Amino acid sequence: MKKMKLVMIGNGMAGVRTLEELLKIAPDMYDITVFGAEPHPNYNRILLSPVLAGEQTIDEIILNPLSWYEEHGITLHLGKTVVDVDRARRVVTAADGTVAEYERLLITTGSNPFILPVPGKDLIGVIAYRDIADTNTMIETAKTHKHAVVIGGGLLGLEAANGLMLRGMSVTVVHISSWLMERQLDTVAGKLLEKSLADRGLKFELGAHTAALLGNDEGRVRAVQFKDGREIPADLVVMAAGIRPNTTLAEKIGLHCQRGIVVTDTMQTVTDARIYSVGECAAHRGIAYGLVAPLFEQGKVCATHLAHFGIGRYTGSQTSTKLKVTGIDLFSAGDFMGGEGCEEILLSDPTAPGGGIYKKLVIKDDKLVGACLYGDTVDGSWYFKLLREGRSVADIRDRLMFGESNIGDTGHEGHNKAAAMADSDEVCGCNGVNKGAICKAIKDKGLFTLEEVRKHTKASASCGSCTGLVEQLIMFTAGGDYSATPKKKAMCGCTDHSHQEVRDAIFKDHLTSIPQLMQHLGWKTPNGCASCRPALNYYLISSWPKEAKDDPQSRFINERSHANIQKDGTYSVIPRMWGGETTADELRRIADAVDKYKIPTVKVTGGQRIDLLGVKKEDLVNVWKDIGMPSGHAYAKALRTVKTCVGSEWCRMGTQDSTQMGKDLERAMWRMYAPHKVKFAVSGCPRNCAEAGIKDVGIIGVDSGWEMYVAGNGGIKTEVAHFFTKLKTAEEVLEYTGAFMQLYRKEGWYLERTVHYVSRVGLDYVKKKILDDHEGRKALWAELQFALDGEPDPWFDFDKARVDTRQFQPLQPQLASSATSA
Amino acid sequence: MTTWTPICRIDDIPVLGSRRVLREKGAAVALFRTETNEVFALLDRCPHKAGQLSQGIVFGSSVACPLHNWTIGLHDGQAAAPDVGCTPRFAVRIEDGAVSLKADELATLGTELPLPMAGPCLRHAA
């Protein structure tokens, strides 16, 4: 097949990323020609500030060396500015007369710095801050000249000023507003930033209007003059007063432009279907983005359309801001200024070590709508997530300010400033990834987003408690940003549907099998993946009990073999011990099985049970049979343990028979599959020896009855359970606990623990459903009892539990005598 | 001349599932059956941390390792990007529903690769 011709005008980050995405999915579809006005291959423009500051070199920020273009057969015209496009003949022309034909055209001309229209703007020594040439001019000027003035106290201006100061110049920042970065920070944070930068040696002229730039006899700038007549010396003036989408060419060739080249959700220009545009020059739904993550997302969407896959829509991004000045942490997102109808939560400690801490959270209608952090930004990503999801924060409002990290984050030694960490310090405690490894991967592999870093390094990919640190590292190493799109997250790559949409469809359309569901909802893969199939299987059997059939091949191995796989491929077996009570008889049988099957490790678990570790898969069936105790479901997303204290039967402090209560709860709800594992505990008095405060449901006996707590968690984020209600009788405890569980089973997303479920829907909602709606509660409890009635014990009733027993028998190659030759 | 060793019937392998074939030496061989009744054989050993691929979830023509969810292609034994690694694959013959593996591959392929260890034997090993 003859290749089509693709021409790209502009050789920047967004455009080249689009080509990379395209080459990944359709490597042989196009003959590609690229025009770049600069004489350099694609480099990381965001990292010009660290280059200026002397922290990195130009070579280090090259993203695609010339060899990359060669490898992929791309014709590269460097230093050639395209001046015209004949859309009828489909030919582009560069200033030097170079022409190229196209069938698809991609315009990625980026943006231009805004040059203040003041007298003297064309003097020598007056520059913008946009590309390598500007950066080199600044570095060279700093060697020979003394005074620099940066016009513009925004992100770019401050980064330029900081760099020039580090290069030895005396730098004044001139800013029209009365505080710095007024589009990202409120007054207080802006002032803290000013003080911190002033302490480093920067000078400021705030609320100052530049009237003219004055030159000397040689035509070089010598001073900046303000409207009030004052002058300050300047051998170098850097204009950093904002950028404008570069639409000069697009307008000339008649493409519709309005604050950028207007594109659709498929990144096609609205004027000419053969012409696409991504990056800072493109206006999508009225917004021209300037951050890397949204632009890369645009690139990905654009690539799928160029490749004729016709999938993917770009639907806009929410963005946030960080400043790349080493040692200064600030973060802002959303409507951080507040105003009418908004409430603010503030924390202010202006004299805290390291330049002060200031945090402002803006809440509207019980939702977080804006955040502005200075000095401590590790929770930025958490706030940003809350902001994007738009969920109610009413139930966590009292703890919101203290961030996600105040509730027991573990695994990164309590670090909250990535810049202060040594390369050997561990960032991700789950996967053992240290700072050095993450930074190296970011640099070597050109990673920009959290998702990319997760994929390549596994950091932050498991429990996620180090996400804030990883994002800081991305920021400082690659200049990546926090920006992220979708509020609605697809279940996995196999579908565009979210967990909620799938759950709803199963219920509404009465779907009862995975193939039926996949056809109905247009799954993109023939039989899903290891991520969606277990979720679908759970959704089906929990929505349609006794009707939907369990599919063992869609379950994780533990739930297929009813034991817990270990690192060497052996399994662990934990029999159920109701309420943690056992007998001499049971212990004898366990001991005999340990001897008979040579089980290497016997361990008492935290849930008051006994764990037999290292059982060979072939022995599982016989171990279960010999022990003769019910399955503990210690391997399943199901009810695990019900931990109890000895309670009033023995304890001199006990007020209630907690052991019996625990046994009753366990007998009522064992065999109950759930979105994730579920643990209960029952204590007989408020001394709470059973640690009921960190369980999915915790029951605490008091003299007058039982207190019920829900949605606690002792795991990654130690989360104290919320007080739910006070109950009088054991029957009520069963009913309320069962109803809460059934609500969670019906509404929870797969792999969502009760703590996450409750925080998503809000405790008030759960209270409404269980405490206020008496009929509804009883109905839920009845539903759960119906679902569990007659459910098999998978260790004994193999057929009914759909256990494929063939798995326990390895195959033996048949003897050589029966072998055939060919 | 190739000698084929009969292993089982195709129906002995669950659809979207697998069976393990024990060998005298080395890791087992994992036999996989896809939804379209193709059968593949890989060394039952993930290139990452030697997890038993036979215990993973099979989808499309891939299997997800049960230990850390690496995705391994059944055609070629290659880990899906960005993970990097490869597990040896074995030739499979199906005739009239009978599944056979090559005798020489059964005897030698991948036998030098160490098996994963856990439990008290780690202490002795150290």
TrEMBL record, chain A:
InterPro entries: BFD-like_2Fe2S-bd_dom (IPR007419), BFD-like_2Fe2S-bd_dom_sf (IPR041854), FAD/NAD-bd_sf (IPR036188), FAD/NAD-binding_dom (IPR023753), FAD/NAD-linked_Rdtase_dimer_sf (IPR016156), NasD-like (IPR052034), NiRdtase/SiRdtase_haem-b_fer (IPR005117), Nit/Sulf_reduc_fer-like_dom_sf (IPR036136)
Nitrite/sulphite reductase 4Fe-4S domain boundaries: 636-772
Pfam families in UniProt: Fer2_BFD, NIR_SIR, NIR_SIR_ferr, Pyr_redox_2, Rubredoxin_C
Domain FAD/NAD(P)-binding: 4-285
Ranges for domain Nitrite/Sulfite reductase ferredoxin-like: 566-627
UniProt xrefs under SUPFAM superfamilies: FAD/NAD(P)-binding domain, Nitrite and sulphite reductase 4Fe-4S domain-like, Nitrite/Sulfite reductase N-terminal domain-like
Essential cofactor(s): [4Fe-4S] cluster; siroheme; [2Fe-2S] cluster; FAD
PROSITE patterns: NIR_SIR
Domain NADH-rubredoxin oxidoreductase C-terminal: 320-390
Keyword annotations of the record: 2Fe-2S, 4Fe-4S, FAD, Flavoprotein, Heme, Iron, Iron-sulfur, Metal-binding, Nitrate assimilation, Oxidoreductase
The protein's annotated pathway: Nitrogen metabolism; nitrate reduction (assimilation)
BFD-like [2Fe-2S]-binding domain span: 427-474, 491-541
NCBIfam families hit by this protein: nitri_red_nirB
Family, as annotated: Belongs to the nitrite and sulfite reductase 4Fe-4S domain family.
This protein's name: Nitrite reductase large subunit NirB
Organism (species): Ideonella azotifigens
Organism ancestry: Bacteria, Pseudomonadati, Pseudomonadota, Betaproteobacteria, Burkholderiales
Automatic annotation (TrEMBL), chain B:
Pfam families given in the database record: Rieske_2
PROSITE patterns: RIESKE (PS51296)
Keywords from the named record: 2Fe-2S, Iron, Iron-sulfur, Metal-binding, Nitrate assimilation, Oxidoreductase
Rieske domain segment(s): 4-101
Database matches in CDD domains: Rieske_NirD_small_Bacillus
SUPFAM superfamilies linked to this entry: ISP domain
NCBIfam families: nirD_assim_sml
Protein name from the UniProt record: Nitrite reductase small subunit NirD
Biological source species: Ideonella azotifigens
